[in-house]
């Protein structure tokens, strides 16, 4: 069994990552924030998903000494020139528990694009997944991949699965929102699924070589 630390405060995101990794990295044991000594989690100060994913993974490996994965992700809405983007998690400014936060974010987004016609409601989810691991003499090696899921923002919230903006998002070629899709179907087409499947062989190689 080889251990990887997943640096995320979002339990539902963490569950997705765990599920996808378990399928694609043999004998992986995934640890979360509750399994390690608490450390100061960094602010997400970068203007890009990649930059923020790297901050989270780098601080995680420095704090835990474990090979660490982090995802930074968000919804980029065409009619909002790519926003909420890296600000997706706190778009409504709310810092409460995740269900309240998600609801406030979704209500604000619906209001903002209320007058945008159906043909201009395109959007995509993006995920940057960063992997950082110790490499001797205090060094850290970093690797980043990206995944996207194109689709559109609908006019009412539908579904109870997933998290965040899933209730408002219908992927291209689908009718159900990503909150209505069974988890394995979301993983098969999601930004996070694509990024994690791309990085999985690399993670597996590093873990077996460590
Ligand atoms: O930073 P960590 O601790 O991992 O957890 P977080 O929820 O703050 O995660 P991000 O900073 O990456 O912000 C991502 C936000 O983008 C949205 N988002 C990302 N991926 C999503 C997905 O698969 N489905 C729905 N919304 C998603 C959702 O609002 C997330 O809170
Ligand atoms: Mg965050």
Description:
With 210 residues, this protein is an alpha/beta fold. The protein has one domain (2-209): Maf protein. Helix content is 34%, strand content 23%. The chain has helices spanning 11-24, 49-64, 98-112, 183-189, 191-209, and strands spanning 2-6, 28-31, 68-77, 122-134, 140-153, 169-171. A six-stranded mixed beta sheet has the order 2-1-3-4-5-6. The mean pLDDT is 95. The structure holds inosine 5'-triphosphate (ITT) and magnesium ion. Homodimer.
**Category from helices, strands and their pairing:** alpha/beta
Using the alpha-carbon principal axes, give the shape: globular
Q: What is the total number of structural domains?
A: 1
Integer average pLDDT: 95
CATH hierarchy, class:
Alpha Beta
Q: What percentage of the residues does DSSP assign to strands (E)?
A: 15-25%
Low-confidence stretches: none
- The spatial strand order of the largest sheet comes to 2-1-3-4-5-6
Q: Write down the Rg.
A: 17 Å
In the CATH hierarchy, the architecture is Alpha-Beta Complex
Write the element-wise H/E pattern from the N-terminal end onward.
EHEHEHEEEHH
Active site: 72 (proton acceptor)
Protein name: dITP/XTP pyrophosphatase
Family: Belongs to the HAM1 NTPase family.
Catalytic activity: XTP + H2O = XMP + diphosphate + H(+); ITP + H2O = IMP + diphosphate + H(+); dITP + H2O = dIMP + diphosphate + H(+)
């Amino acid at each position: 069994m080889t251990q990887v630390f997943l640096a995320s405060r979002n339990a539902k995101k963490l569950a997705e990552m765990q599920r996808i990794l378990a399928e694609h990295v043999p004998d992986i044991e995934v640890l979360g924030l509750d399994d390690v000594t608490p450390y100061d989690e960094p602010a997400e100060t970068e203007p890009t998903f990649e930059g923020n994913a790297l901050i989270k993974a780098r601080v995680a490996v420095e704090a835990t000494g474990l090979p660490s994965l982090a995802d930074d992700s968000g919804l980029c809405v065409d009619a909002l020139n790519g926003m909420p983007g890296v600000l997706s998690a706190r778009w409504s400014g709310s810092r409460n528990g995740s269900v309240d936060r998600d609801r406030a974010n979704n209500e604000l987004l619906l209001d903002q694009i209320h007058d945008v016609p159906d043909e201009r409601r395109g959007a995509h989810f993006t995920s940057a997944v960063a992997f950082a691991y110790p490499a001797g003499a205090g060094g850290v090696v970093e690797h980043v991949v990206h995944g996207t899921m194109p689709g559109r923002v609908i006019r009412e919230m539908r579904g109870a699965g997933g998290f965040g903006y899933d209730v408002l998002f219908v992927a291209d070629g689908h009718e159900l929102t990503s909150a209505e899709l069974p988890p394995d179907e979301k993983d098969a087409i999601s930004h996070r699924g694509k990024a994690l499947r791309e990085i999985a062989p690399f993670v597996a190689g590093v873990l077996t070589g460590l």
